[in-house]
Specification:
By secondary structure, this protein is an alpha+beta fold. It folds into 3 domains: about 220 residues, no CATH class; about 210 residues, no CATH class; about 45 residues, no CATH class. The chain is about 45% helix and about 15% strand. A hairpin with a 6-residue loop joins β12 and β13. The longest helix is centred in the middle third of the chain and has 18 residues. The radius of gyration is 25 Å and the shape is globular. Zinc ion (ZN) binds next to α13, β17 and α14.
């Protein structure tokens, strides 16, 4: 044994481990994986998630049986690296750690039969993504890994292990981070390769367990790419997509790693329908797929390309403050006078050669869709069935919101097929809403329009909303965020 083996970058994602010889006689250790004592350390963004105190002493890595962890990573690999959507109805935009744990707790105690079914769904999703499901008796931190579009999301809570011995305490604060797929897949796979290679049994039964792990590693390594990709999609959506792809002679543009069983870049339709936490009808899948076909093989305007960037969603900034900053940046680049009240958004979309398509989907939960990337003419799809798109002002807000996604929410491969709805990441959606509000109404223009009036009434807000072409409720919230109106004035204008 040669000490801790590290895989990955500690400032991004790193897993380190070593096998340890147990001082205890084999007979006194558990039958399953009793041979597999080891040391484990996980670092994300420079933070050591396994850091803990035991009897007053601080330690970076924890000692526990590693066999169950290796077995779990191998059996759930496909889901860990490719499944994004929650398998139960939830509108949470939080990280998987918050969403799954909060919903588990909510449904756990319920005696209502329907809730019991939801609980089972959450529980099985938890088994596929929560590190603690590998071994509930272990002292692991509560870490969740899931796909998030063309990225991997790692998120964690500060919940202590259920069976922690006295004097044991994990040190971490809750958090989450997004990585390029390889940044997480590579270290985890290398860890599995090392662990299965170097594992040492004691008894014959132990060696049978070691051999089983090695065999499983070899099997997972050969997983078919389409099987991996299918883990991102609901089965019924996949059927419709395959049917449509055949009819339209769609050539998949997915990318997979050469030496690791992982799809690093999904085929565009898979990317588009994968994260949806909504029952989407076959007709809607067909209609949206056909829009993709329509936009495919197009090009992006150079001016637009020059404005595209991927700022982190995990800034220290509040999402709304960040959205404001990004909107200022774009208004300046487009040479829009900050004092100008009404922005002709369609004019700017035309200038950037972004197509606007209005459709009436069967679902009313999708508000808008943004499509962009290599080989695509960028487009914004406005779903007329969504309640906010019933008015011209609502549609203007949707356009500005999706415009933010086109500029700032592309994947590492610079692609985007973002479907806006209550299930998408809360931070991304809040940022896009703030962007939209400021793009359509700057504080300079609002203050000029208000003049001396520091406590506008409801009628005044309505007038302003009409002249800026923005919904009155959205404007009222926007003005409070900008500190143009006080909390008292905000409360006084009720809706
Ligand atoms: Zn959105």
């Amino acid at each position: 044994m040669t000490g801790m083996q590290s895989f990955g970058d500690p400032n991004r994602f790193e897993i380190s481990a070593q096998w340890i010889k147990d001082k205890e006689h084999r007979n006194r250790l558990p039958k399953a994986y009793g041979w597999s004592m080891g040391e484990l350390c996980i670092k994300v963004g420079g933070v050591t998630l396994t850091e803990h105190r035991i009897h007053g002493e601080s330690k970076e890595s924890l000692q526990w049986y590693l066999g169950p962890l290796v077995a779990w990573l191998l059996s759930q690999w496909k889901w860990l690296m490719h499944e994004e959507a929650y398998a139960w109805p939830t509108v949470s935009g939080d990280s998987a750690a918050f969403t799954a744990e909060a919903d588990l707790e909510r449904y756990m105690g319920s005696e209502y039969p329907k809730d019991r079914d939801v609980y089972k769904e959450i529980r099985s999703w938890w088994m596929r993504h929560a590190l603690r499901s590998a071994d509930p008796s272990a002292l692991y931190p509560s870490i969740f890994i899931r796909r998030f579009e063309d990225n991997i999301e790692v998120s964690w809570l500060d919940k202590q292990p259920e069976f922690a011995p006295d004097g044991y305490e994990l040190n971490l604060n809750p958090g989450s981070a997004l990585f390029a797929v390889e940044e997480v897949a590579q270290p985890l796979w290398k860890f599995l390769e090392w662990a299965t290679n170097e594992a040492q049994g004691v008894t014959k039964e132990d060696w049978a367990q070691v051999d089983a792990l090695r065999e499983q590693f070899a099997i997972v390594k050969c997983t078919n790419i389409s099987e991996l990709e299918a883990a991102h999609l609901a089965a019924d959506v996949l059927t419709v997509l395959m049917d449509e792809a055949g009819k339209n002679q769609w050539k998949p543009d997915r990318k997979a790693s050469n030496d690791i069983p992982v799809v690093t870049q999904f085929d565009m339709p898979v990317l588009m329908f994968g994260g949806l936490n909504v029952n989407i009808s076959a007709n809607d899948v067909r209609q949206i797929f056909n829009i993709l076909v329509l936009q495919h093989r197009g090009v992006e305007d150079e001016k637009l390309s020059s404005l595209v960037s991927s700022p982190s969603n995990y800034e220290y900034l509040q999402p709304y403050a960040h959205g404001y900053e990004l909107a200022y940046q774009i208004r300046e680049e487009l040479d829009i006078d900050p004092h100008k009240a009404f922005i002709d958004i369609k004019k700017y979309l035309k200038l950037l050669r972004i197509d606007v398509l209005e459709v009436r989907l069967e679902t009313n939960s999708i508000r808008g869709i943004a499509i962009a990337g290599n080989d695509f003419s960028p487009a914004i799809v406005v779903n007329l069935s969504h309640k906010f798109n019933g008015s011209a002002r609502g549609r203007r807000f949707t356009l500005a919101h999706e415009l933010c996604h086109i500029f700032f929410d592309r994947s590492h491969a610079k692609r985007l097929s973002h479907v806006s709805g209550p299930w998408t990441s809360g931070r991304v959606e809040k940022r896009a809403n703030a962007f939209a509000a400021l793009f359509l109404a700057t504080p300079h223009a609002l203050e000029r329009a208000l003049g001396e009036n520091v406590s506008p009434d409801r009628a005044m807000i309505e007038r302003l909303a009409a002249s800026f072409g923005i919904g009155a409720r959205a404007l009222r919230e926007h003005m409070r965020n900008l500190n143009i109106i006080s909390d008292d004035v905000f409360q006084a204008i009720s809706y």
